[in-house]
Design a protein that fits this description.
Belongs to the PAPS reductase family. CysD subfamily. This is Sulfate adenylyltransferase subunit 2. It is an enzyme of class 2 (transferase). The protein is of the alpha/beta class. It is 37% helix and 14% strand. The strands form 2 sheets. The protein has a 6-stranded mixed β-sheet with strand order 3-2-1-4-6-5, with helices on both faces. Strands 8-7-9-10 form a 4-stranded antiparallel β-sheet, with no helix packed on it. Helix 3 crosses helix 8. The longest helix is centred in the first third of the chain and has 24 residues. The model has no long low-confidence stretch (mean pLDDT 87).
Amino acid sequence: MNPAVDTLFLDTASSRHLDWLESEAIHIMREVAAECANPALLFSGGKDSVVMLRLAEKAFRPGAFPFPLVHIDTGHNFAEVITFRDKRVAELGERLIVGSVEDSIQRGTVRLRNPATDSRNAAQAVTLLETIAKYKFDACIGGARRDEEKARAKERIFSFRDEFGQWNPKAQRPELWDLYNTRVHPGENMRVFPISNWTELDVWQYIAREKLELPPIYFAHERQVIPRNGLLVPLTDLTPPRDGEHIETQMVRFRTVGDISCTCPVASDATTVEAIIAETAVTQITERGATRMDDQTSEASMEKRKKEGYF
């Protein structure tokens, strides 16, 4: 970036703010490594997990990460994101464990009316719990943030899950003075969120500062979409137009990436990180509110999924 852009987006105050957030997140990651017997870092290839990888590098390099990377693959992910995931893992030389929703379907632990086309987003919870049980993970580090959705807003940084993998918002542990209770019984586990206190804008400013590479679908590109219920549904084999709907070609970008069946882009001409920062600074709709069909089924959609074991 040139000096003018540095001045506009990463002034001294915001840089100090990012330093503080980074320091907190690194402290939390090191706390997990020190206190938990068998942790894992969730990595999907999305922007938040890309930030998490950089934080892990700063926390533990030049040594190897003290945990494997884990991705729960629905089988309905955007190809660009999976390609980026594999490329980034190869660059880091770290171990990647992939839990497959398709394998859960074949085992009969996930049942869908139409496995070929139904959304597999909620089904990830089952596959995640199976992966945790298989590898006996006692902590899974994720990139969730409190500004994403109101159910996430009331979640602790160290989020306790019972022996069934369920989250009870009324049975969480206090985190006074940044002291974390990581004790769990066999079968129980923690979900740990080091960037809980970050915002979407913080994430993008950190990406700019650290010059992090991202999947290309995060930047504005031309794509066929279907206007539906205030969202722009990407035209794919999994998301075809319904009767009476029309297809448009628009310049769009993805604010968040997930299962194709429930993730929508937003209209945008932002082709650079700096342009995305400018858009993010003035947006009034959260990234999940603007892009996720699964969060529009009810106001309690996310909380219900989390109680069932979701990230």
